[in-house]
Amino acid sequence: MANLVYKRVSTDQQSTARQNLVLDEAGIEKPVVFEEDPGTSSRLHPLQRPKFRELLDYARPGDTVHVSEMFRLVRGTGHILDVLDVPP
Fold it and tell me: pLDDT (tens digit, 0 to 9) for every residue of the chain, 88 residues total?
């Protein structure tokens, strides 16, 4: 079972420092990190983001996906449901 970490910032002026802090404090062992290029818009559906698609292709049953805050991955209930509907 792998610990998959997803990181994203909305502009190239932002950094993942806060996300790193939150995830480090969580004590995630041997994380496999998938980080979008800076400026990957939150308006882009999660399933259209290259690194999130890569994470989904990598994931296996029993893996855990970690994000520092839910808004780094989804914008609303519709996105949550779409992500949950992805076949294994």
Answer: 999 999 999 888 999 999 999 999 999 999 999 999 987 877 889 999 999 999 999 999 999 999 999 889 888 898 889 988 887 7
> E-assigned strands of the chain?
3-7, 31-35, 64-66
What is the tally of helices (H) and strands (E) in the chain? Answer: 3, 3
For the whole model, what pTM was predicted?
0.89
Give the Cα separation of 75 and 71 in Å (integer): 6
Amino acid at 34: F
Which among 59, 19, 24, 21 has a CA at the least distance from the CA of 36? 19
Which residues, at least 6 apart from 44, have a Cβ–Cβ distance to it below 8 Å? none
